[in-house]
Design a protein that fits this description.
Elements: E1 2-6, H1 10-17, E2 24-26, H2 29-35, H3 39-49, E3 54-57, H4 63-74, E4 80-85, H5 88-99, E5 104-109, H6 112-121, E6 125-128, H7 130-135, H8 140-154, E7 159-162, H9 168-177, E8 181-184, H10 196-209
Parallel strand pairs: 1-2, 1-8, 2-3, 3-4, 4-5, 5-6, 6-7, 7-8
The protein binds erythose-4-phosphate.
């Protein structure tokens, strides 16, 4: 499973990237707004740190607006993926861009039908929002399972990015369901490697080590 970081925070990206855990980055206008920096500048900086795909979202609403914007954004770096909203104009935009070789990530997907439409239109990635699906009393992970099955049934090449990941459970269940990618907030990802029993175990070993006879205090 690939991990994308769902953040535009450079410190978070650098910290997790040092562990070799970052396969890509996703952003959206809300995430960009948190950094209080110029959009182009921050996206270019992320692209210079992370080798994998970096999603940057268009703001336009019509096909013309989105296509124009996408062409500009796609030129910022070789690893740019343009994020397009799941609308009729968005599908037309994806269809045009896919023929130009511009990679797209169709965002705000909440149903199997929407995911299927995006894949048919030629999306490189589709982003079902598990957390927001759960928020309305439906099952976000079931959406991932069903989309995986549908893409497999018809051999679409679009990859599933599990988005709106809020919990470790979301990530674990998306992995079991076979989602290609999970995009994880920079604040959640460090929780994936933490476990209280690991911390207790280390503490116990350090205590017990004090009773071991030794010539030197440490090996270092
Ligand atoms: C990423 O592509 C999405 O924009 C993001 O995961 C949405 O997360 P949220 O529902 O927590 O805002």
């Amino acid at each position: 499973m690939e991990f994308f970081l769902d953040t535009a925070n450079i410190e978070e990206i650098k910290r997790i990237n040092r562990l070799g855990l970052v396969n890509g980055v996703t952003t959206n206008p809300t995430i960009i707004a948190k950094e209080n920096r110029d959009f182009e500048e921050v996206i270019k900086e992320i692209c210079s740190i992370v080798e994998g795909p970096v999603s940057a979202e268009v703001i336009g609403v019509t096909t013309n607006e989105m296509v124009k914007e996408a062409r500009v954004i796609a030129d910022w770096a070789p690893n740019i993926v343009v994020k397009i909203p799941m609308t009729e104009a968005g599908l037309e935009t994806v269809n045009i861009l896919s023929k130009e070789g511009i990679k797209t990530n169709v965002t705000l997907i909440f149903s199997v039908a929407q995911g299927l439409m995006a894949a048919k239109a030629g999306a490189t990635y589709i982003s079902p929002f598990v957390g927001r699906v759960d928020d309305i009393g439906e099952d976000g992970i079931e959406l991932i399972q069903n989309l995986k099955q549908v893409l497999r049934n018809y051999q679409y090449t679009a990859k599933i990015i599990t988005a709106s990941v809020r919990t470790i459970g979301h990530l674990e269940k998306a992995a079991v369901a076979g989602a290609d990618i999970a995009t994880i907030p920079g604040t959640l990802l460090p929780k994936l490697w933490k476990h209280p029993l690991t911390d207790n175990g280390i503490q116990q070993f350090l205590e017990d080590w004090k009773r071991v006879p030794k010539r030197f205090e440490t090996l270092l």
